[in-house]
Design brief:
It is built from 19 helices and four strands. By secondary structure, the chain is mainly α. The chain has a two-stranded antiparallel ribbon. Strands 3-4 form a two-stranded antiparallel sheet. A hairpin with a 4-residue loop joins strand 3 and strand 4.
Length: 439
């Protein structure tokens, strides 16, 4: 059933069908952040964030915050008064993501990032590379800081499709939701309902929902990273199959060809596979990742493989520009330490890049000395590493924290608490010996 009720006498307090209980035997697993009480807490926090954002922000962020606050309030009421988790999740997705996304796509001009993606798609169709060469760069908007797979979202517009059907942001949102749904389904194979509910909660949350509504390029990258982690997870003491190891490499390869923010996950996950499953698994993971990345580059930026100018343009656009090492700098600003250092001049910029390299070296050393031995440990190592890199990087905005917050949210939603089956309320007529209902 989709309605939770408060338990009595210290019971679990959640009605569970006999079919699901039988599927979970021996031992019963509950996902605490998907029950009514925890969802009420989550949506109360979502509502508080949206309310504060509605007061303190402006422009597109304020539009999202007003819509989202209404969605979270209705969802909270549905949970508090009637306990309908599915209804609450659907309402929050509709009002915190879908409505503001459509509103902003129609009422506001195309985001700079989406303009860059659509231009890169046109360049790909006409010149075989989504990047402008150095002599064609006239401003910071001439750069394309994304990697070749991001170009896919601009192909409908480049092919002449107009309106919402050609909007790169709409396609980006659809791809994100689809990949997140697959990732949660892989992580929750025994419960399709839990997987769908977790997907809706994740999409509606401010971490993902805000980025989808105002259209940033990070949500699909995070989604593919989570899919790779979901494919890597195995029960304690078990090893990942060859298919799942290769699948994780393919998923992360796509993420790495979307945006360079996914690159840190490569050494972290490789170290985890080596420590948990052995060197052969790590090599299989890396081989699948490299083959996927090269195949996608060959498909979506073929000129890079054959023309020196195109290869140089890729490095200039996707590596040097994000590090602030090009002639034209991004006007984006933040109060993060790395950006404040970079704004102090050449010396401060050198210090920021140096600190970034020091963080990378420290993570590499930690992976050698004490590699993560399961997915949870890998997620925490990745979260800490990304947080430090975003704090100290020279050209980083607050929106990048979608990655560490998204990883922590994934841990919460997919966490399972194993309970003694006898401690879980059973339907009348339940036979503990056979694990079924008596006739």
């Amino acid at each position: 059933m989709d309605v939770d009720h408060a338990g009595t006498g210290g019971g679990v307090g959640t009605l569970v069908s006999a079919r699901n209980l039988a599927a979970r035997e021996p031992g019963t697993g509950l996902r605490p952040w998907l029950d009514r009480r925890h969802l009420i807490i989550a949506y109360a926090l979502f509502l508080a964030y949206a309310a504060i954002d509605a007061i303190g922000s402006a422009g597109e962020d304020r539009v999202w915050a007003i819509w989202a606050a209404c969605g979270y309030a209705v969802a909270l009421l549905a949970l508090w008064r009637w306990g309908h988790r599915t209804a609450a999740a659907l309402v929050s997705v509709a009002l915190a993501v879908l409505a503001p996304l459509l509103w902003l796509s129609v009422a506001y001009r195309l985001e700079d990032g989406m303009m860059v993606i659509e231009r890169s798609a046109s360049l790909l169709l006409h010149h075989g590379s989504p990047y402008l060469t150095a002599d064609q760069v006239v401003s910071w908007l001439s750069y394309n800081p994304y990697l070749p797979v991001m170009t896919l979202f601009g192909l409908p517009a480049a092919a002449g499709v107009g309106g919402l059907a050609g909007n790169a942001g709409v396609w980006l949102a659809l791809a994100t939701v689809a990949v997140l749904a697959i990732a949660f389904r892989v992580a929750m194979p025994m419960s399709r309902r839990d997987a769908l509910l977790a997907t809706a909660v994740a999409v509606a949350s401010p971490v993902v929902g805000l980025n989808l509504a105002v259209i940033t390029t990070d949500p699909p990258v995070l989604a593919f990273m989570l899919l790779a982690l979901a494919l890597s997870a195995v029960p304690a003491g078990a090893q990942a199959t060859a298919a799942r190891t290769a699948g994780a490499g393919i998923a992360l390869g796509v993420a790495c060809d979307l945006k360079s923010t996914a690159w840190l996950a490569v050494p972290v996950m490789a170290a985890m596979f080596a420590a948990r499953d052995g060197a052969r698994a790590a090599y299989r993971f890396l081989a699948a990742l490299v083959v996927t990345s090269l195949a996608l580059v060959a498909l979506l930026a073929p000129a890079v493989l054959f023309k020196r100018g195109a290869a140089t343009a890729l490095i200039q656009n996707s590596v040097l520009f994000p590090l602030g090492l090009t002639r034209h700098k991004t006007p984006a600003e933040s109060l993060l330490p790395g950006h404040l250092l970079a704004s102090m001049g050449a010396a401060g910029h050198v210090v920021s890049v140096g600190l970034l390299l020091a963080v990378g070296l420290a993570i590499a050393v930690s992976l050698v000395i004490r590699p993560p031995r399961n997915v949870q440990a890998a997620i925490w190592r990745l979260t800490i590493g990304l947080t430090l890199m975003f704090l100290l990087g020279p050209n980083v905005r607050f929106g990048y924290f979608i990655y560490p917050f998204g990883l922590i949210g994934w841990l919460a939603l997919t966490q399972v608490i194993e309970l003694n089956p006898s401690a879980v309320p059973r339907p009348r007529g339940w036979n503990h010996a056979s694990g079924t209902l008596d006739p």
